[in-house]
Structures are given as C-alpha cells and as structure tokens.
Amino acid sequence: MVRACGLLTAQKEPVPLKSIEVELEVRDHVATVVSTLNYENKEDKPLEAVFVFPLPGDAAVCHFNAKIGQTQIVAEVKEKQKAREEYDDALSSGQQAFLLEESLQSPDIFSLSVGSLPPGESASIRLEYVTELAVQADDGLRFCLPAVFNPRYQPQGSEGAGVQVTSVPASLVPYSLSFSARVSSPRPISKVESNCSLDPLQYLNTDQTQATVKLAAGHKFDRDVELLIYYKDAHQPTAVVEAGQVSAEPGSLMADSVVMVSLYPEFPQSVTSSVASCGEFVLLMDRSGSMISNCSSHTVASLYFQCSLKDTLLLLLKSLPMGCYFNIYSFGSRYEHIFPKSVEYSQQTMEEALKTVVQMEANLGGTEMLQPLKHIYSQPCIPNQPRQLFVFTDGEVWDTKEVIDLVKKNSDSHRCFSFGIGEGASSALINGMAKEGGGHAQFITGTDRMQPKVMQSLRFALQLAVVDISVTWDLPKEVSVTVLSPPITALFPGQRSLIYAQLSGQVGAAEGCVTVKYSLAGHPSENQLHFSLRPAEDTGLTVHKLGARTLIHSLEEGEHRGWQDTKVKEKVVQLSVQSGISSSLTAFIAVFNNNGEAIQGPLLHKNILKHGESSFCFIFGFSASVSEQQTRDPLLQLVSLQEATGKWLLDPALPTALGKTNEEVEKSKPANKEIWATILALIWLHGLKMDSKNEWDLLAMKAASWLRAQNGSNPYENNIMCAISFVLII
C-alpha cells in the first residue's frame, strides 16, 4: 500500500479545508453536480495544498474556478504536460496556481493542487461535473456523493504514480457539508429516497415534474450520501435535443446540436421469468486485507458485513441450475481457486465449494486483481456453456484501466457482473468492468442487503440475452447524424442505454425518428421513438458535455491503447479543449499573479484528503474469525438444507428451520418424504418470506422443476393434501 500523508499532522494541526457545499441538478437520467470547497491557510507560512477526491467513473468535469479573497479565477483546459509546466512556473515565481488533473491509473481519482496560499488567506474552489445516473433494480436512478475515498493498493515494485490517500475517523473531520438537489423530468417524479435524513420533498409545479430536496441539518458526512430518484412511466423512451454554442467553431461538436436518447425497455413477464439451464459461472472474491477495517472492536454493523458475503455465496450457489459449470477464485496479493478448472454443478461439488467458503478469511494481503483475471481468461470456454463472471471487491486496485482493458479484450467470450462492496468502492472499476463486460454493476454500502442485489445479477445472467441490436435514424434530408456512443453490445431486462449523437445541418422544428431493432429468444422486436428536433431550452450544454465525454472515452479506450497513434491523441486533446471536458490527456490550469507581488516565505506542502473511514467499524466480506455467535436467519437455515437438484430431504434440521417440531412435520406419514419436505419448504417460503422473494425465487423455481420431474401421474397428490393441513398451523 502506498504510504500516505495524513489528514492531520503529528501535532494534530487542523487542515485548511473548512466546508463543502454541493448542489445537484438532475435532468431525467443525467445529473450536473456543483461542489464548492472552502479552504483557509492557518499556517504562518505559504501553503501548497493537494486535495485528492473521487468522481464517478463516467463523470465529465466541465468547470473549475477558484476565489482567493475577492479575486475570481476561472481555469482553462490544456494539454496535461503544458498545464503542469505552467503550474510549476507559477509556483516558482510566487504566484497562486490551481491544477486539476485525472489519474492515469483510475479515472475516478482527481487530484486538485490548490497552489500557494498566503498565511491566513482563504480560498474557495468550485468544481462542476456532469454524469449519467445508474438505474437500479427497482427502476430508481442512483446518485452517490462519496464520503469515503479508499486508498488504492499498489504492489511493491510496480510502476506508476499511486495516488497517496489516507483515512481518518469522520469524528475528526473538521469540515462540514451542505447538500441540495433539484430534479426535473418530462415524467412526474414519484419520490426521492436516501440513506441519509432528508427534508421533505418540495414539488415546484402541479404536474410534479420538478422538485427540490435537501439534506437534513446535522449530517456528519460519515457515510456516502445516496439519492434514489423514481419517475412514473420509467420505461417510456425519451429524447432530449440540445442546441449548440453560438461561439463554438462551426462544424465542431460544440457548435452543432446534440441529441440524447434514453432506452429503457420493459420486457414481457414471460421473458423475464424464464431462465437458462446452462452456463459457466466463475466467482472472483476479494480477500485482500482492505476488505476488513482496522478497528479493534466488533460492532453490530461489522458482524453483519462479516457474514453477509458468505451468506450471499450460499444463496448464489444454491440457486445455480443443474447442468451448469462453476468455480470460485479468491485474490489478494496472490490468488487461489477451489477447483483447477470449472466443474459440473452437482451435490458433491456444491458441498465442496461451500466447505471452502466457510473457511475463507480476508487474509491474502493486497488487492491484485489483474493476475487472477488473466488466469480465468486463459481457461478455454466450455462449449454451450456461456461464461458469466461475478466479481466482488471493495475496488481498491491501483491499475483500474488495465483491469477494464482486460475485461473488454475478452468481452466476446463472457459477461462480467461486478459488485462494489463498502463505502467508496471505485465507481470507475465497478461500472467499467460491467460496461465493458456486457453485464451489470451493483454497489453495496451501509446496511444494504447484499443478497437481493446479487440475486438480481444472477437472474440477469440466466436470462436470454438480447442480440442483433441495431440503431437507425430517420431525419430530414438537410440533417445528418454522427453517433457519438459506441454500439450497444448487450441489453437485458433492467438495463438502460443512453445514445448520444451529433446533428449537423439545418436542425429546425421538424421531427426525427430513431428505431432500435433486436432479437430476443429468436423473436425480432422493434422500438421506435419519434421526437422533435427543436432544441430544449436552458440545458446548460449538459448533453453536449456528456456526448463529448462519451466520444473521448471511446477514443481513450479504443484500439490505440498506449497512445501509439498520434492522431488519436491529438483528437482527444482537441475535443477536450473545445468542450471544456477533462480527459486523461488534459488538465484544468489557473494562475493568479497577485498584482505582480511574490508571496513571501518558503512553501509548505500538505495533502488534504476527504476522510476515508466512518466513525464506526465495518468488516466487509471475509473477515478474520470472531468468537461472537449470531442467530442465523431462518431463511438461510432453510436454504442451507436444499440439495443441488432443488429438493429438500426430510432431515432432522428441517423442522427447526421451519419453526416446527419433528412430530408436526412427520405426523402425516407422507408416502415420499423428499417430495413432502420440498413441498413444505416451498409453502413456508411462499407463506412467510414473500417480502424477500427476490432472494429465493430462483432456488424455488429449481425446487418446483424437481417436483415436476418426478415420475408418476401425480406422485405428490397425497403430499399436497397433507401440506394443506400443515399450512393451516404455520
């Protein structure tokens, strides 16, 4: 791990960051975020300060300014090396300077060098970025303001500048947070929820398409601030056309109009309820030391997280279909696997895997994901068994881009489903792996139940894939279209796609049409969206900026990795400078000469970080063993007794799991005890656990399939009559 400078000095001197103000503007599926960071230099010498902070992996930084006293400075986007040279020259001449650049290793890490602040002087940094909001399982749109920035693990001897970050308890953080959000959409806003206390939602119009909400007073910023936004008619497609900048270079992206199309189709129940009975499921588990916190005492929250991942693996393994193949890898500084290669799913292999899972601990050192991924991809795919990769990690890797590149390189042979565990999990890593691997990303924070999110991803993996996707445009002859987004390679229930396109020519008040065709389960489908080409008013160029960021990402992550193609590099820099959007090759730079007067005294250097650890302890995933005993969830007790085939045995432990005595379960003297036990288990699930049906429905479907496969005209007719009498006493 990179050794970091602390937030506080050894003498416990206060850091100069005093407050953070965040304003969120949500327009349908897109958000604009404005953060204001207020500083004060309490040293008796000039201070060079560096602030390291996270952003969503797909965010586009679009504005950066600084205020020293009463003087306002607006930054410009320039090629990164040129910006660094200007910054160094300014500091050496005693000028104030500000530099914002993106990490080459992780695009969600931005380091903000606020330059030399005179003694006693205050500085205010205003940063604006735009980002897409992720769709959740319940159709909500998720926005997350990270309160934690976990350090990135960097192996000893590896090359690359690891970002130096440290963590302190939130109780010692001397700065405050204010947060407000404004939401608008063509659709009515149903509700806004959060894991933090909010003031009541305030609607701004009668049709409830605009609303505001604020964080309640007294928030300690000891957790991520998460908003979930819900719209009515969430699956209706939308299109937003945005006018270009009058002052932009004619023919450029920023001068032309840009359209953003949102596609979030709803599939028939017959499609979403059917699952495949094959596949190779490879689970990759993070067992690095960062998966447990360094606190000395165990809390209720830490005990919850200690067991959560193991319980999730139990549920996941029990829900796999007969006929599939599977394997489990775990990694830290090294990696392990349960089987030399993927094995066929059976009672024996399932039990062997579960025995190993129970013994797992977070004891494998650092977070090195690249090598186990290379080993997984080196294994030949099994014919007629589509590979599905499930990755569980806290996201503390240093080589994010290399990992994502590797997933993309192998995207033709698998789908990748990623899970970010804990506060501050890298959105660039989690979202990037899922995006490039054609899968789905999930984040588990706070007291979130991991099981429903993981089971939703398993359901996605088992569902039939949407294939042969094509997008065509029908526009007036005087308008041409240039698609900025990469082709849609994967789409399944619960996923949304945003398509950005540049419209050139005479864009007036005419109508355009976009048609999406695809095939599902051998049946072709077609969706059409007719939209007005009249640009929307007062959009702040949000769509342009996201379109530019999408194109920049495509160029950065394309075939010319390592920037061997000079033209691609020049194109990225040109597009970044024209749009004001940051990239891995550019940086924001601002210099203020303080009326020509040099700042007196030698510079002090101090790193200023967002705090990295909550004031209470969390243990994520596989922790060291603890002596405390916990009462196991009755649902998990019942799940643990299910066989790989889907059936239950009339085991002595079954009555206990059902909350019954042996006499109550066996008094009906069933003809077939296995059928009887399976029916009782299903009745108990449907009778008492419907609130968590999304966790057990796959294993229940497997049980029902086993029942239907039994020989005889109706071998369990008598058992059903017995079950009816049994359910009356549940």
TrEMBL record:
Domain VIT: from-to ranges: 1-131
Residues spanning the membrane: none
Record InterPro entries: VIT, VWF_A, vWFA_dom_sf
One Pfam family this sequence matches: VIT
Domain of life: Eukaryota
Occurrences of domain VWFA (ranges): 280-458
Name by which UniProt lists this protein: von Willebrand factor A domain-containing protein 5A-like
Lineage: Eukaryota, Metazoa, Chordata, Craniata, Vertebrata
